[in-house]
Amino acid sequence: MPDESESVVDWDSLTFSFTKTDRMYLSKCKLGGEWAVGSMMDFEDLVISPAAGVLNYGQGLFEGMKAQRASDGSIVLFRPDRNAKRAQEGALRLGMPPVPEEIFLDAVIKTVRENSRWVPPMGKGALYIRPLLMGSGPILGVAPAPEYTFLVFTSPVGPYFKGGITPTSLRVSERFHRAAPGGSGGVKAIGNYAPGMIPSKMAKKEGYSEIIYLDAVNHRYIEEVGAANFFCVKDGVISTPELTGTILPGVTRASIIELAMARGYEVREEKVDVEYAMSADECFCVGTAAVVSSIGRIQYGERVKEYYSGEVGPVTRELYENLTAIQQKRSPDEFGWIVDVE
Ligand code: PLP
Ligand code: COI
Question: Does 188 qualify as catalytic in the annotation?
Fold first, then answer.
């Protein structure tokens, strides 16, 4: 174990960036074999074949979860079984052996426990958990690798969008798409992310926080906001893009739908025309990293729509408050979403 006196982060200035923590989990499995419980080790670089399937053909996926300090001092996870299941679906899509749910959950819990000193105080951020599954064995032909590595590492993080709760300014991309029907947009394939880096960087250079992707067929229906799911509210009705296979089925998205319905809202999973969103009363995006982030402004072509004069809208605020209260055990876990780690 590293020296305990090694500096711990300044909790008040956390951003969404990588900080090395103490320990990681690692397990390996042959193609056609079975996953066994892996082992905990000090966080370190990997030794990997230059011919590894993941390096050459992008055969890999990741997950993103958070461990948080709750109001009673415990450390909790939010619906980790959902991430385990999504990783299994992604593994099947990418020709990798799915990690059994028990092994996935055990790995996540052990990694959080052994890095617990990196969990920020309540309300200051979270310990971001990054499970990673990849084809680590060597292969030259475009085919599933002969060996797989499943690992879990962590990093303390602050808000995903600079400015935290301040509503973000987004631009609809008319040039780039994230995913096409039949592709890998519906799973957390590592290869889905690099193509979004330049579009996102270009938008940031122009003062936007992220871009909104439209569907690749009609160039008309909203898909996602970078790495978060989109919602809008009009006349009290909440709409979110339906899952068509090109959108990532977010754990936060599913939770917000359930929560909003339980609070009496009508929630529609449907095609969300960008024009409809431009005429909505409120827009927000959700994700593990993004939590519930208010959208203050959307630029689409030459037009700009401002929501609530750039303030956080009431439905966005209510859902943010309700979700984070459950996540931090400030209100009862009415849906059974919280898992205690420590
Ligand atoms: N969409 C994409 C493309 C993502 O990468 C993520 C992050 O995981 C999300 C949406 C939000 O999903 P979740 O709420 O499960 O974090
Ligand atoms: C998450 O919300 O967990 C994500 O995976 C977003 C990200 C790619 C940083």
Answer: yes
